[in-house]
Amino acid sequence: MSYEIKQDGKFKFIEEGNGEPLVLLHGLFGALSNFKPLIEHFRQTHKVIVPMLPLLDLDLLHTSVGGLQKYVHKFVEHRGYKNIHVLGNSLGGHVALVHILKHPENIKSLILTGSSGLFENGMGDSYPKRGDKEYIRKKTQLTFYDPAMATDDLVNEVFEITNNRLKVIKIIALAKSAIRNNLGEELNQVKQPVCLIWGNNDTITPPFVGKEFNRLLPNSELHFVDKCGHAPMMEVPEAFNKLLHNFLAKLNATTAATV
């Protein structure tokens, strides 16, 4: 299934279905392909929106978690979305958290999966020499419980990014920004319902990170998925969609009961 990439002003995005907005924010090496099963499932009940985050297109000064949050805020304002459910994976979760802390007014719920913001293992202590495709393959495989998920296409996407010197500088800038921007002391300010969906075999944001988010976010619920790494919506899409579906249905039932 391919989707039309729309353009509105400077913003490029995908928008499928009708209903309350479900905004999906991908991670540092993420792409639209990460979300296809999720889009297909939730376009039946929601307006599913995937903004094309300018991870490697911002000027270096704004290549940060804060810079990406400002972009998302401008996008949401420009499009006029209300009652938004925001879902973020990895760095996208971190951006979603900063956004809800700064602009809680239009956010109805938050869904985090493998989110940074408290702790994450990055690319490791060393960065590869450009052209080291096997290193990129091994690092991409670490994202998943099943190494076969790191397909040639996915490895090639990541390799192409890391083979560009300026893009590598920006990736390092974003990774360092994520490490510096620890949100531990602010998370108790998030009042909206939060659904945490975590891979039991996540080595980048390990299970203890999910537990710590659950402890610090006052209105959160935590779900672990077995045989799953850092990107549950890719690796176990059926289990992920079921957990998210139940969370959103429960939220709607609660909202309807209070109206």
Summarize the topology.
Layout: E1 6-8, E2 11-16, E3 21-25, H1 36-42, E4 47-51, H2 65-79, E5 84-89, H3 91-102, E6 107-113, H4 133-141, H5 152-162, H6 165-180, E7 194-199, H7 207-216, E8 220-225, H8 232-235, H9 237-258
Parallel strand pairs: 3-4, 3-5, 5-6, 6-7, 7-8
Antiparallel strand pairs: 1-2, 2-4
Helix pairs in contact: 1-9, 2-3, 4-5
How many strands in all?
8
The CATH top-level class label: Alpha Beta
Continuous helix count:
9
Q: Structurally, how many domains make up the residues?
A: 1
The ordered string of helix (H) and strand (E) elements is EEEHEHEHEHHHEHEHH
Strand order of the largest sheet: 1-2-4-3-5-6-7-8
The radius of gyration is 17 Å
* CATH topology title: Rossmann fold
Given helix and strand content, the structural type is alpha/beta
Rounded to the nearest angstrom, the distance between the terminal CA atoms is 38 Å
CATH architectural designation: 3-Layer(aba) Sandwich
Residues in β-strands, percent: 15-25%
Q: How would you characterize the largest beta sheet? A: 8 strands, mixed
Shape: globular
**CATH-level-4 superfamily name:** Alpha/Beta hydrolase fold, catalytic domain
Key terms:
259 residues; alpha/beta; Rossmann fold; 8-stranded mixed β-sheet; 8 strands; 17% strand
Give structural notes.
- Helices cover 41% and strands 17% of the residues.
- It has helices at residues 36-42, 65-79, 91-102, 133-141, 152-162, 165-180, 207-216, 232-235, 237-258; strands spanning 6-8, 11-16, 21-25, 47-51, 84-89, 107-113, 194-199, 220-225.
- A hairpin with a 2-residue loop joins strand 1 (6-8) and strand 2.
- The model has no long low-confidence stretch (mean pLDDT 91).
- The chain is of the alpha/beta class and 259 residues long.
- It is globular and about 55 Å long.
- An eight-stranded mixed β-sheet has the order 1-2-4-3-5-6-7-8, sandwiched between helices.
- The protein starts with 5 loop residues before the first strand and ends with a helix.
- It has nine helices and eight strands.
- The chain has a single domain (6-121, 182-258), classed as Rossmann fold.
- Helix 2 crosses helix 3 and helix 4 crosses helix 5.
